[in-house]
Amino acid sequence: MLTLPADYNLELLATSVVLLDAKLNVCALNLSAENLLGISASRARGHPLDALLDESNEWYPLLHQALSENYPMVRRAISLTTRSDQQKTVDITISPVTTKVGSHSLLLELNIVDRLQAISRDESEWQAQASLKEIMKGVAHEVKNPLGGIRGAAQLLSAELPDPALQEYTDIIISEVDRLHKLVDRMLGPRERLEPHPTNIHEVTEHVRQLIEAEAEGALHIERDYDPSLPDFLADAGQLTQALLNLVRNAWQACGAGGLITLRTRVFRQFTVGGNRHKLVCALQVADDGPGVPDELMPRLFLPMVTGNAQGTGLGLSIAQRIANQHGGLIQVKSVPGDTCFTLLLPMEMQHAPD
Protein backbone atom coordinates (compact mmCIF):
# COMPACT_ATOMS: atom_id res chain seq x y z
CA MET A 1 0.00 0.00 0.00
CA LEU A 2 1.21 3.51 -0.85
CA THR A 3 1.66 5.93 2.06
CA LEU A 4 1.64 9.63 1.22
CA PRO A 5 4.38 11.76 2.85
CA ALA A 6 3.13 14.60 5.03
CA ASP A 7 4.55 17.19 2.62
CA TYR A 8 3.28 15.44 -0.54
CA ASN A 9 2.38 18.06 -3.14
CA LEU A 10 -0.07 16.97 -5.84
CA GLU A 11 0.83 20.03 -7.93
CA LEU A 12 4.26 18.52 -8.65
CA LEU A 13 2.68 15.87 -10.86
CA ALA A 14 2.00 16.57 -14.53
CA THR A 15 -0.75 13.94 -14.72
CA SER A 16 -4.28 14.57 -13.47
CA VAL A 17 -4.44 13.43 -9.85
CA VAL A 18 -7.55 13.02 -7.70
CA LEU A 19 -7.50 11.90 -4.06
CA LEU A 20 -10.70 10.18 -2.87
CA ASP A 21 -11.74 9.10 0.59
CA ALA A 22 -13.23 5.68 1.43
CA LYS A 23 -16.68 6.92 0.33
CA LEU A 24 -15.30 8.15 -3.02
CA ASN A 25 -15.67 11.79 -2.05
CA VAL A 26 -13.09 14.18 -3.53
CA CYS A 27 -10.44 15.18 -0.99
CA ALA A 28 -8.01 16.93 -3.30
CA LEU A 29 -7.09 17.36 -6.96
CA ASN A 30 -4.31 19.09 -8.81
CA LEU A 31 -4.44 21.69 -11.59
CA SER A 32 -4.37 19.08 -14.34
CA ALA A 33 -7.37 17.34 -12.77
CA GLU A 34 -9.22 20.66 -12.57
CA ASN A 35 -8.78 21.02 -16.33
CA LEU A 36 -9.86 17.43 -16.91
CA LEU A 37 -13.02 17.61 -14.80
CA GLY A 38 -13.82 21.20 -15.67
CA ILE A 39 -14.18 22.27 -12.04
CA SER A 40 -12.01 24.06 -9.48
CA ALA A 41 -10.56 22.19 -6.51
CA SER A 42 -12.47 24.39 -4.05
CA ARG A 43 -15.81 23.49 -5.67
CA ALA A 44 -15.01 19.79 -6.11
CA ARG A 45 -13.66 19.12 -2.63
CA GLY A 46 -16.10 17.19 -0.45
CA HIS A 47 -18.38 16.15 -3.32
CA PRO A 48 -18.82 12.55 -4.49
CA LEU A 49 -16.89 11.71 -7.61
CA ASP A 50 -20.07 10.63 -9.39
CA ALA A 51 -21.40 14.18 -8.94
CA LEU A 52 -18.57 15.38 -11.20
CA LEU A 53 -18.58 12.56 -13.74
CA ASP A 54 -21.38 10.96 -15.69
CA GLU A 55 -22.90 7.87 -14.07
CA SER A 56 -22.09 5.81 -17.16
CA ASN A 57 -18.33 5.88 -16.52
CA GLU A 58 -17.31 2.24 -16.60
CA TRP A 59 -14.54 2.39 -14.04
CA TYR A 60 -16.58 3.03 -10.89
CA PRO A 61 -16.59 -0.73 -10.10
CA LEU A 62 -12.80 -0.66 -10.28
CA LEU A 63 -12.69 1.95 -7.54
CA HIS A 64 -14.79 -0.17 -5.20
CA GLN A 65 -12.71 -3.23 -6.04
CA ALA A 66 -9.44 -1.41 -5.32
CA LEU A 67 -10.79 -0.28 -1.95
CA SER A 68 -12.14 -3.68 -0.93
CA GLU A 69 -9.07 -5.64 -2.06
CA ASN A 70 -6.57 -2.94 -1.04
CA TYR A 71 -4.72 -3.53 -4.31
CA PRO A 72 -3.61 -1.11 -7.05
CA MET A 73 -5.05 -1.36 -10.56
CA VAL A 74 -4.17 -0.01 -13.98
CA ARG A 75 -6.56 0.25 -16.92
CA ARG A 76 -5.84 1.57 -20.41
CA ALA A 77 -8.08 3.57 -22.74
CA ILE A 78 -11.00 3.94 -20.35
CA SER A 79 -13.85 6.22 -21.45
CA LEU A 80 -14.53 9.22 -19.20
CA THR A 81 -17.54 11.49 -19.56
CA THR A 82 -17.95 14.69 -17.53
CA ARG A 83 -21.26 16.11 -16.39
CA SER A 84 -20.96 18.64 -19.22
CA ASP A 85 -20.92 15.70 -21.69
CA GLN A 86 -17.26 16.12 -22.62
CA GLN A 87 -15.96 12.69 -23.61
CA LYS A 88 -12.31 11.79 -23.15
CA THR A 89 -10.21 8.64 -23.19
CA VAL A 90 -7.83 8.14 -20.28
CA ASP A 91 -5.32 5.69 -18.88
CA ILE A 92 -6.08 5.31 -15.18
CA THR A 93 -3.95 4.13 -12.27
CA ILE A 94 -5.83 3.44 -9.02
CA SER A 95 -3.65 3.24 -5.90
CA PRO A 96 -4.95 2.59 -2.37
CA VAL A 97 -3.18 4.99 0.01
CA THR A 98 -2.95 5.64 3.70
CA THR A 99 -3.09 9.30 4.69
CA LYS A 100 -1.21 10.73 7.64
CA VAL A 101 -4.20 10.08 9.91
CA GLY A 102 -4.32 6.42 8.85
CA SER A 103 -7.58 6.50 6.91
CA HIS A 104 -8.02 4.57 3.67
CA SER A 105 -8.20 6.53 0.44
CA LEU A 106 -7.65 6.16 -3.28
CA LEU A 107 -5.19 8.06 -5.42
CA LEU A 108 -6.31 8.30 -9.05
CA GLU A 109 -3.76 9.18 -11.75
CA LEU A 110 -5.38 9.99 -15.08
CA ASN A 111 -3.50 10.47 -18.33
CA ILE A 112 -5.62 11.68 -21.21
CA VAL A 113 -4.81 9.44 -24.15
CA ASP A 114 -6.24 11.96 -26.61
CA ARG A 115 -4.07 14.70 -25.11
CA LEU A 116 -0.90 12.58 -25.18
CA GLN A 117 -1.51 11.94 -28.86
CA ALA A 118 -2.17 15.64 -29.39
CA ILE A 119 1.09 16.58 -27.61
CA SER A 120 3.04 14.25 -29.91
CA ARG A 121 1.20 15.65 -32.93
CA ASP A 122 1.80 19.25 -31.80
CA GLU A 123 5.51 18.61 -31.26
CA SER A 124 5.76 17.12 -34.75
CA GLU A 125 3.88 20.13 -36.14
CA TRP A 126 6.25 22.50 -34.31
CA GLN A 127 9.30 20.73 -35.74
CA ALA A 128 7.76 20.66 -39.20
CA GLN A 129 7.12 24.40 -39.07
CA ALA A 130 10.74 25.04 -38.05
CA SER A 131 12.01 22.88 -40.92
CA LEU A 132 9.62 24.55 -43.36
CA LYS A 133 10.86 27.97 -42.29
CA GLU A 134 14.45 27.05 -43.16
CA ILE A 135 13.39 25.55 -46.50
CA MET A 136 11.39 28.65 -47.37
CA LYS A 137 14.34 30.90 -46.56
CA GLY A 138 16.46 28.96 -49.02
CA VAL A 139 13.77 28.98 -51.69
CA ALA A 140 13.20 32.71 -51.25
CA HIS A 141 16.90 33.42 -51.69
CA GLU A 142 17.10 31.31 -54.86
CA VAL A 143 13.95 32.90 -56.33
CA LYS A 144 14.65 36.53 -55.47
CA ASN A 145 18.08 36.63 -57.11
CA PRO A 146 16.88 35.79 -60.66
CA LEU A 147 13.78 37.95 -60.17
CA GLY A 148 16.02 40.92 -59.52
CA GLY A 149 17.99 40.15 -62.70
CA ILE A 150 14.84 39.80 -64.79
CA ARG A 151 13.49 43.12 -63.51
CA GLY A 152 16.75 44.93 -64.21
CA ALA A 153 16.96 43.48 -67.71
CA ALA A 154 13.36 44.50 -68.44
CA GLN A 155 14.11 48.07 -67.34
CA LEU A 156 17.18 48.25 -69.60
CA LEU A 157 15.25 46.75 -72.50
CA SER A 158 12.46 49.30 -72.01
CA ALA A 159 14.97 52.17 -72.31
CA GLU A 160 16.39 50.74 -75.56
CA LEU A 161 13.14 49.99 -77.36
CA PRO A 162 12.61 52.31 -80.36
CA ASP A 163 8.81 52.02 -80.25
CA PRO A 164 7.25 53.36 -77.02
CA ALA A 165 4.22 51.11 -77.63
CA LEU A 166 6.46 48.07 -77.01
CA GLN A 167 7.08 49.27 -73.45
CA GLU A 168 3.70 47.78 -72.59
CA TYR A 169 5.35 44.35 -72.65
CA THR A 170 8.30 45.32 -70.48
CA ASP A 171 5.87 46.98 -68.05
CA ILE A 172 4.04 43.64 -67.78
CA ILE A 173 7.34 41.83 -67.07
CA ILE A 174 8.26 44.34 -64.33
CA SER A 175 4.77 44.21 -62.83
CA GLU A 176 4.72 40.39 -62.70
CA VAL A 177 8.22 40.25 -61.23
CA ASP A 178 7.16 42.67 -58.48
CA ARG A 179 4.06 40.55 -57.82
CA LEU A 180 6.16 37.39 -57.47
CA HIS A 181 8.57 39.22 -55.17
CA LYS A 182 5.72 40.23 -52.86
CA LEU A 183 4.30 36.69 -52.96
CA VAL A 184 7.63 35.22 -51.84
CA ASP A 185 7.77 37.74 -48.99
CA ARG A 186 4.26 36.78 -47.89
CA MET A 187 5.13 33.08 -48.00
CA LEU A 188 7.92 33.76 -45.52
CA GLY A 189 5.42 35.36 -43.17
CA PRO A 190 6.12 38.31 -40.87
CA ARG A 191 9.81 39.19 -40.84
CA GLU A 192 9.78 41.93 -38.25
CA ARG A 193 10.77 41.06 -34.71
CA LEU A 194 8.10 40.76 -32.08
CA GLU A 195 7.46 43.80 -29.92
CA PRO A 196 5.89 42.23 -26.83
CA HIS A 197 3.92 44.42 -24.45
CA PRO A 198 1.31 43.64 -21.78
CA THR A 199 -1.67 42.67 -23.93
CA ASN A 200 -5.34 42.20 -23.18
CA ILE A 201 -6.39 39.41 -25.53
CA HIS A 202 -10.00 40.61 -25.50
CA GLU A 203 -8.97 43.99 -26.86
CA VAL A 204 -7.43 42.08 -29.79
CA THR A 205 -10.53 39.91 -30.33
CA GLU A 206 -12.88 42.89 -30.13
CA HIS A 207 -10.79 44.89 -32.60
CA VAL A 208 -10.85 41.99 -35.06
CA ARG A 209 -14.58 41.45 -34.52
CA GLN A 210 -15.33 45.08 -35.34
CA LEU A 211 -13.17 44.95 -38.49
CA ILE A 212 -14.82 41.78 -39.80
CA GLU A 213 -18.35 42.94 -38.98
CA ALA A 214 -17.68 46.17 -40.86
CA GLU A 215 -16.43 44.20 -43.88
CA ALA A 216 -19.38 41.79 -43.74
CA GLU A 217 -21.93 44.64 -43.59
CA GLY A 218 -24.43 42.61 -41.59
CA ALA A 219 -24.04 39.37 -43.58
CA LEU A 220 -22.24 37.59 -40.75
CA HIS A 221 -23.08 36.89 -37.11
CA ILE A 222 -20.26 36.73 -34.54
CA GLU A 223 -20.90 35.41 -31.03
CA ARG A 224 -18.52 36.01 -28.12
CA ASP A 225 -17.76 33.59 -25.28
CA TYR A 226 -14.95 35.16 -23.29
CA ASP A 227 -13.33 34.13 -20.03
CA PRO A 228 -13.15 37.43 -18.10
CA SER A 229 -10.54 36.02 -15.70
CA LEU A 230 -7.81 35.99 -18.36
CA PRO A 231 -5.02 38.36 -17.25
CA ASP A 232 -2.92 40.51 -19.53
CA PHE A 233 0.25 38.82 -20.78
CA LEU A 234 3.27 39.75 -22.89
CA ALA A 235 2.56 39.52 -26.62
CA ASP A 236 2.80 41.50 -29.83
CA ALA A 237 -0.78 42.76 -30.16
CA GLY A 238 -0.28 43.86 -33.77
CA GLN A 239 0.97 40.45 -34.86
CA LEU A 240 -1.80 38.66 -32.95
CA THR A 241 -4.35 40.91 -34.63
CA GLN A 242 -3.01 39.82 -38.03
CA ALA A 243 -3.09 36.14 -37.06
CA LEU A 244 -6.64 36.38 -35.70
CA LEU A 245 -7.81 38.34 -38.75
CA ASN A 246 -6.51 35.53 -40.96
CA LEU A 247 -8.33 32.90 -38.88
CA VAL A 248 -11.62 34.82 -38.81
CA ARG A 249 -11.50 35.62 -42.52
CA ASN A 250 -10.84 31.94 -43.20
CA ALA A 251 -13.90 31.05 -41.08
CA TRP A 252 -15.98 33.66 -42.92
CA GLN A 253 -14.99 32.19 -46.28
CA ALA A 254 -15.98 28.76 -44.98
CA CYS A 255 -19.41 29.59 -43.58
CA GLY A 256 -20.34 32.32 -46.08
CA ALA A 257 -23.09 34.93 -45.85
CA GLY A 258 -25.48 34.25 -42.99
CA GLY A 259 -22.92 32.07 -41.22
CA LEU A 260 -22.10 32.01 -37.53
CA ILE A 261 -18.62 32.52 -36.08
CA THR A 262 -17.87 32.11 -32.38
CA LEU A 263 -14.89 33.77 -30.70
CA ARG A 264 -14.05 31.97 -27.46
CA THR A 265 -11.28 32.44 -24.88
CA ARG A 266 -10.20 30.05 -22.15
CA VAL A 267 -7.19 29.53 -19.90
CA PHE A 268 -5.45 26.14 -19.68
CA ARG A 269 -3.29 25.32 -16.67
CA GLN A 270 -0.21 23.09 -16.73
CA PHE A 271 -0.64 22.66 -20.48
CA THR A 272 1.90 21.35 -22.98
CA VAL A 273 2.45 23.27 -26.23
CA GLY A 274 5.03 22.16 -28.78
CA GLY A 275 6.69 19.81 -26.29
CA ASN A 276 7.03 22.52 -23.59
CA ARG A 277 4.86 22.57 -20.49
CA HIS A 278 3.49 25.94 -19.38
CA LYS A 279 1.77 27.05 -16.20
CA LEU A 280 -0.83 29.10 -18.06
CA VAL A 281 -1.84 29.00 -21.72
CA CYS A 282 -4.36 31.29 -23.39
CA ALA A 283 -6.65 29.36 -25.75
CA LEU A 284 -8.29 31.60 -28.35
CA GLN A 285 -10.80 29.69 -30.45
CA VAL A 286 -12.42 30.64 -33.76
CA ALA A 287 -15.33 28.33 -34.56
CA ASP A 288 -17.63 28.40 -37.59
CA ASP A 289 -20.67 26.47 -38.77
CA GLY A 290 -19.41 25.93 -42.31
CA PRO A 291 -19.09 22.63 -44.19
CA GLY A 292 -15.79 21.71 -42.53
CA VAL A 293 -12.25 21.15 -43.78
CA PRO A 294 -11.92 18.41 -46.43
CA ASP A 295 -10.07 15.38 -45.05
CA GLU A 296 -7.44 15.53 -47.77
CA LEU A 297 -6.50 19.11 -46.77
CA MET A 298 -6.14 18.52 -43.02
CA PRO A 299 -2.51 17.25 -43.01
CA ARG A 300 -1.37 20.16 -45.23
CA LEU A 301 -3.63 22.91 -43.95
CA PHE A 302 -0.89 25.19 -42.59
CA LEU A 303 1.47 24.83 -45.53
CA PRO A 304 1.86 27.83 -47.86
CA MET A 305 -0.22 27.79 -51.04
CA VAL A 306 -2.63 25.14 -49.70
CA THR A 307 -6.26 26.24 -49.89
CA GLY A 308 -9.71 24.91 -50.56
CA ASN A 309 -10.82 28.32 -51.84
CA ALA A 310 -10.37 28.89 -55.57
CA GLN A 311 -10.01 32.63 -54.95
CA GLY A 312 -7.54 32.33 -52.07
CA THR A 313 -3.73 32.39 -52.00
CA GLY A 314 -3.38 29.74 -49.31
CA LEU A 315 -1.13 31.99 -47.19
CA GLY A 316 -3.48 33.18 -44.42
CA LEU A 317 -3.31 30.07 -42.24
CA SER A 318 0.41 29.63 -42.87
CA ILE A 319 1.10 33.20 -41.72
CA ALA A 320 -1.16 32.80 -38.67
CA GLN A 321 0.70 29.63 -37.66
CA ARG A 322 4.03 31.42 -38.12
CA ILE A 323 2.91 34.24 -35.80
CA ALA A 324 1.73 31.70 -33.23
CA ASN A 325 5.11 29.95 -33.40
CA GLN A 326 6.91 33.28 -32.86
CA HIS A 327 4.97 33.61 -29.61
CA GLY A 328 5.97 30.11 -28.52
CA GLY A 329 2.51 28.79 -29.39
CA LEU A 330 0.71 27.04 -32.21
CA ILE A 331 -2.66 26.64 -33.87
CA GLN A 332 -4.70 23.43 -33.70
CA VAL A 333 -7.76 22.56 -35.75
CA LYS A 334 -10.68 20.18 -35.33
CA SER A 335 -13.33 19.96 -38.00
CA VAL A 336 -16.57 18.15 -38.72
CA PRO A 337 -19.35 19.42 -41.00
CA GLY A 338 -21.10 22.25 -39.21
CA ASP A 339 -18.41 22.71 -36.56
CA THR A 340 -14.85 23.73 -37.40
CA CYS A 341 -12.69 25.15 -34.63
CA PHE A 342 -9.22 26.69 -34.90
CA THR A 343 -7.54 27.08 -31.50
CA LEU A 344 -4.69 29.57 -31.12
CA LEU A 345 -2.62 28.47 -28.10
CA LEU A 346 -0.44 31.18 -26.56
CA PRO A 347 1.81 30.58 -23.53
CA MET A 348 1.19 33.39 -21.07
CA GLU A 349 4.84 33.53 -20.10
CA MET A 350 6.62 34.97 -23.13
CA GLN A 351 8.93 32.40 -24.70
CA HIS A 352 8.86 33.34 -28.35
CA ALA A 353 10.62 31.32 -30.98
CA PRO A 354 13.78 32.80 -32.52
CA ASP A 355 13.30 34.86 -35.67
Description of the structure:
This protein has helices at 31-37, 41-44, 60-69, 113-160, 167-188, 201-216, 237-255, 316-326; strands spanning 2-3, 16-21, 26-29, 73-81, 87-98, 104-112, 197-199, 221-225, 233-235, 260-273, 276-288, 330-336, 339-347. The chain has 355 residues and is of the alpha+beta class. The chain folds into 3 domains: 2-115, PAS domain (Beta-Lactamase, 2-Layer Sandwich); 117-188; 197-347, Histidine kinase-like ATPase, C-terminal domain (Heat Shock Protein 90). α4 (113-160) runs antiparallel to α5, α6 (201-216) packs across α7 and α7 runs antiparallel to α8 (316-326). Mean pLDDT is 80; it is low at 1-7.
Which overall shape is indicated by the principal axes computed on the Cα atoms?
A: elongated
What is the CATH topology descriptor of the largest domain?
A: Heat Shock Protein 90
Low-confidence stretches: 1-7
Rg calculated over all Cα atoms? 26 Å
Structural class: alpha+beta
Rounded mean pLDDT is 80
Helical content (DSSP H or I, runs of 4+): 25-40%
Distance between the termini: 52 Å
Q: How many domains make up the coordinates?
A: 3
Number-wise, the strands total 13
Name the CATH superfamily assignment of the largest domain.
Answer: Histidine kinase-like ATPase, C-terminal domain
The proportion of residues in beta strands is: 25-35%
CATH class of the largest domain: Alpha Beta
